[in-house]
Amino acid sequence: MKRLAVFVSGGGTNLQRIADYFAPNPNVEIVCVVSNNKGAFANQRAKNLGIPLLVVEKEYYNSEMFIKRLISLDIDLIVLAGFLWLIPQGLIEAFPNKIINIHPALLPKYGGKGFYGHHVHEAVVAAHEKESGITVHYVNERYDSGDIIFQAKVALSPTDTPDDVAAKIHVLEQENFPLVIEGLLFKK
Ligand code: GRF
Question: What kind of architecture, by CATH, is found in domain 2-186?
Answer without folding.
Answer: 3-Layer(aba) Sandwich (3.40)
